[in-house]
Amino acid sequence: MSQKRRQSFQTPALALTCIGAVLLLAGCGGSNDSSDPAQPATPNTPAPNNPGAATTTGVVIGSYFTNAVVCLDTNANGRCDPNEPVARSNNQGKFSLTGTGAAVIAEIGLDAAEFDPDTRVSKPVASKVVLRAPKEAPSVVSFHSTSVVQEMEAGNLPFDDAVQKVAISVGVEKSKLLGDFHEETNVAVKAVLKDASEEGLQRIRTAIAASGENADIRTVLAGAALTDRFYQTKAPYRAQQDVSTYEAAPGGYSPVYTQMVARHGSRGLSSLKYDLAVYNMWKKAQDEGALTALGAKLGPDVLKIMKANVLLGYGVSGISTPGYGNETQVGITEHTQLATRMLQRLPAYWKQVGDTANVTPRQIVTVTSGVDRAVDSGNFFIQSLKRSQPSLTSLVTYPTAPAPYPDNGTAVSQPAGTNRFLLYFHKLDKKVDLVTKPADPLYSTYIDSLAYQDFKKDTDLIAKQSGLTLTPEASSAGRVLLERLFTPAFVDKIANGTYSFANTGTVTFTSDDGKFSPVLNGDGGTTIKSLGDVGSLLYELYVISPAMKSEAGVDFTAYMPVAQAKYFASANDASDFYDKGPGMAEKGDVTHRMAQILVDDLFNEVDAIAAGDRSHAAKLRFAHAEIVMPLAVHMGLKGVSQPLPKSETFNYTNSTWRGEYVSPMAANMQWDVYADAGGKLLVKMLYNEKETDFKGECDSAKAKGTAHFYEYSALKACYGHVAKM
Q: What are the beta bridge partners of residue 116?
């Protein structure tokens, strides 16, 4: 067989000839009888009901795909070849193949159809799709099974690890991932699986349509089905571990307290920056007739993103002020579900807290940075707690904010529940937060904040960050993106400096009801002066689109192939690494020592429990990536806290820092505290809801016989924390 023939992922001609013969005889896939059996596609293959013949049976789903070519991929090349067992799926999407022990391929061509079991409507397939299922689970061929196969191949992962990775990405328990989601009885789980399937199938359709006839289908599917989309710190939140797999506390210990620090949920763009600059570039290309077919779609998609951000949160209950920077529906759901899972993780504890609310009430202390999206996240979280367990309603409290200082005549009082020192320490302002007395407990945090803000002007830092989009690699990656959108002559004018663009101009959109029509002006501060600049700005639009699927309904994956997404993700992570992470070794701890106040607050809460003060049942803190990142570094979390020498430049080979792990949307650190009858305390930490170790030096503080529980007295000694008396 020729190499060209093996690379093509179109339905093999020989297989179609054989299938056609069978269809004439048996009407495979064409019957309206729900009992119509799946038919073998080649007359020289033993029929599935042949006595003694081992078979692989299953179903092909998005909707139920009927008349799809299904085969055992015995040579593991990702396609159906003429010498492989092959069949057509019937009108319920079911198939039966002679043989076992191989992965399954479903090639869904334009002669196939989709049957929706919810609406009972069948429609022709409009775009080709190829799906795969691993030999370990061949009975349901779906987008999710395709992702599992791609993860196994790309990362050389065992089957179970690949399933776990994909399940986390989708947001379901591992046991739910590879079933027929049309038969799922949990409505919420079914919706998550179905929505993710529809999004993934569309990515596959787009990828196949954009690839050539001779493209390697495994490479095409990798770009569409791998879970690593490189959204980094804009990645929508997914709990990183099933609650059912958490280590149980040692005998005699029960939960007595829990606390959390969480980033706000998925949001829109922070301001009118990337979108307007890219749109101005696109408009110039349109005016010059320099757009490709794909490029022609970019401008309208950018306008959708822009409009959605201008109006974001309008008419949504719980959003403080509509516009840029607000949480999206995805973000609201993230914190709503985060609260639900907190209750599910410690059900007996929360029941006890609620049952005794009128006898020995304990407080659920809630604190935010005071910024709208953090405040709103806290409110959505608390409302979810109350809906799930109404008995907790009266226990929610908002402590008084730190008071203005007598020697600061311009200080501004903050609403109850606000603590900028604790949860906005990267931007303390003398007009609001001035502290002048060294004896004041907040003085060191204030000074550390000023030092950090000065560091943002450091020449070494600026050189590191500004250089990220000026390298030959950045220029090359940017050119790949742009030449898919614009003519080479237009791209060259950006490359040689003839053209530059910025976020200048006035933008206005009106809500559907006509009552909200804000006018925004670009500030010109976001510029396009190089091919790398364009790539980085397109990347910013790409990573925000998943958060805005309800509001904008735009998928930017067509504009950002995986290879370029990975490159600009690395640049994005590099920027965060240098100014929010461990950074340059020569600069010391300037990027994260201001987080000490938050580390102290976590320990102080447990100190109170250790001293017998049970007035707090929980403390919930809502903040930002600029808080979560320094906290993770200052806590010394493994794989997060290692700086690099100034002589090196961050990349994915010399550092394990990854924004999607350190601070995805709604990133969180939670401490659960357990006590025995004698009052001895154990602490377990969850990071993004995965059981996580404290810093390596504290491994000796782990309770004997456990993997994740730490003896509190030894833990705080390891961190050098001293309880306040």
A: 121
Angle formed at CA 274 by CA 579 and CA 492, multiple of 5 degrees: 105
Planar angle of CA 559, 561, 567, nearest 5 degrees: 110
- List the alpha helices (DSSP H) in 181-242: 187-210, 217-225
The reported pLDDT for the residue numbered 211 is 86
Beta strand ranges found along 388-457 (DSSP E): 396-397
- Whole-number Å distance between alpha carbons of 269 and 324: 6
Q: Which two tokens stand for residue 368?
A: 């935010």
Residues 6+ apart with CB under 8 A from 237: 265, 266, 334, 338, 664, 665, 666, 667, 688
List, in sequence order, every beta strand (DSSP E) within 399-543: 501-502, 506-508, 519-521, 527-528
Q: Is 198 helix (H, G, I), strand (E, B) or coil?
A: helix
The token pair that represents 490 in the structure block: 């237009």
pTM higher than 0.85, yes or no?
yes
Q: How does DSSP assign 569-586, residue by residue?
A: HHHHHHHHHHHTSS-BGG
Instruction: Collect all residues with Cβ–Cβ distance below 8 Å to 69 and sequence separation of at least 6.
Output: 11, 15, 16, 19, 41, 80, 86, 87, 88, 106, 107, 108, 109
Please state the length of the chain: 725
Distance between CA 535 and CA 514 in Å, rounded? 36
Please choose, from the candidates 81, 123, 126, 129, the residue with its C-alpha nearest in 3D space to the C-alpha of residue 103.
81
Q: Could you state, in order of their start, the residue ranges of all structural domains in the chain? A: 3-227, 274-321+462-579
Q: Give the distance, in angstroms, between the CA of residue 194 and the centroid of all CA atoms in the same chain.
A: 17
CA distance 266 to 660: 13
Least confident of 42-46, 370-374, 406-410: 42-46
d(CA 73, CA 107): 12
- The tens digit of pLDDT for each residue in 557-581 reads 889 998 999 999 999 999 999 999 9
CA atoms of 18 and 37, how far apart (whole Å)? 18
User: Which percentage of the chain shows pLDDT scores above 90?
Assistant: 86
